[in-house]
Amino acid sequence: MSRQRIGFTLCALVVVCASVWGGFQTRDRWMGWIATRKTLAKAVEEPRAPIQEAKVLKLSPPARKNLGLVAKAAKPQTYWRTIQMPGSIIDRPGHSDRGVTSPAVGAVVQIHAFPGDTVKPGDRLFTLRLFSEYLQNTQSELFKATRETQLLNEQRVLVAKAIKSGAVAETKLIELDNQLRRQTTAIQAYRQDLLTRGINPEQINAVTEGNFVSTIEIVAPPPVAEAKKTAEIQQAAFQLIDNRVEGLAYEIQELKAELGQQVQAGQLLSVLANHHSLYLEGHAFKQEAPLLEQAAQNGWPIQVEFAEDDGKYWPALEQTFQIRHLANAIDTASRTFDFFIPLTNQSRGYKRDGQTFVVWRFRPGQRVRLHVPVQELKDVLVLPSAAIVREGPEAYVFRQNGDLFNRIAVHVLHEDRLNIVLANDGSVTPGLYLAQNAAASLNRVLKAQAASGIQADLHVHADGTVHAPGK
């Protein structure tokens, strides 16, 4: 063998040895790569196992307390689907406010009640000095007619004696009787005229004695006639009994006359308010009119939410709210029409500086939210809105069994701001305890437990109950 071939053989042997040695030194790298390739090839060849969605979670008692969880048994019931409409409280025309007017021409010489004061019927409001020439003439005519009647009665006594003696004809007595009847009629007319002008019977009797009236007292009016006939309209109370008030009371809402001002007959002097009988005024669009008409015609009760009302300081409001009537005109600015619901107010009073003041629970201008019923849903499950969680088109509730919570898919029939209405289609068995709140938090905990790889060793029965092993 030539030297050249021997050298080539030795070089090849060295290269082979070096490759073997290098491969041995890097065996961890290339053997792992080969294993990875085999694993990937096997994964491609074999189908993946389906991922099971987590449906059950476990919560400890402290965790449930932290979430404030409440669970109640599911019970089928009847639910009214409603539509919400805004509204406000307003005075009821003809019942809430009373105007006090001047009965004659005069000047205001004294004001007895001021805005904020509470008065009862018959209490003095104003003192007027009369300037009415007509009123003065009426008093003069009444006085003259009274005196004339006295003279005629005296003359009749004398004529009657003369007739008995035959000195006077009986026709004279008949003539006197006719004059007396005319004077009596005139006196009745004058007295009635003075009564309508605000002069009381005692003052009228004084006029017949020659004491003419130069000032009159304007007093609070009596209750409206309808309030006496119907129990529905009962005015505010005045007499305090254990911080409750009894009897009619008015509040001076506004003064329309000033001290020393000359007023005319029929001029408004003040406005009295009594907020016992009010209206809930709702606002709706024209397309909602058929629904409101249906509710009004059938007398369906309206649910009312009062804004800025703290009921714990007042007695329970035991009233059934029903639509009385709908307005037939549309507001040009808001494009809405109004509907009206009667409201009987609550009041209480207190005394200060010898005066009684009335406080009302509801006040005109206060906002309300009206829930008008439009459809009756029978045999459904009703839960609070916080009892459901949504994931796309799916809706879920959580059934509680001790520390375990099972997520159940449900069919939502109706949803509003407060409640969720579920179909009683067998997805939730009546009687099972469902979480009434924190459904979104429970769903996040379920997702977190599933992502962490912690599998609760649980099983679900056919009736929907969840149990741990051995239970």
Largest sheet: 8 strands, antiparallel
Number of domains: 4
The N- and C-terminal alpha carbons lie at a distance of 88 Å
Task: Report the total helices.
Answer: 9
Q: Are there runs of 5+ residues with pLDDT below 50, and where?
A: 226-245, 459-464
Structural class by secondary-structure content: alpha+beta
Beta-strand residue fraction: 25-35%
Question: How many runs of DSSP E, i.e. beta strands?
Answer: 28
Bin the helical content.
25-40%
**What is the arithmetic mean of pLDDT?**
81
**From the structure provided, what is the oligomeric state, counting identical versus distinct chains?**
single chain
What does the radius of gyration come to?
Answer: 46 Å
Tell the overall outline. rod-shaped
Describe the structure.
It is a single chain. The chain has 471 residues and is an alpha+beta fold. The chain has four domains: 3-45; 56-79 and 377-467, conserved putative lor/sdh protein from methanococcus maripaludis s2 fold (Beta Barrel); 85-93 and 276-375, Elongation Factor Tu (Ef-tu), domain 3 (Beta Barrel); 97-270, no CATH class. 31% of the residues lie in helices and 32% in strands. The protein contains nine helices and 28 strands. The strands form eight sheets. Strands 3, 14, 15, 16, 17, 20, 24 and 25 form an eight-stranded antiparallel sheet that branches. It has a four-stranded antiparallel sheet with strand order 1-23-22-21, covered by helices on one side. β9 (239-241) and β10 form a beta hairpin. α4 (133-165) runs antiparallel to α5. Mean pLDDT is 81; it is low at 226-245 and 459-464.
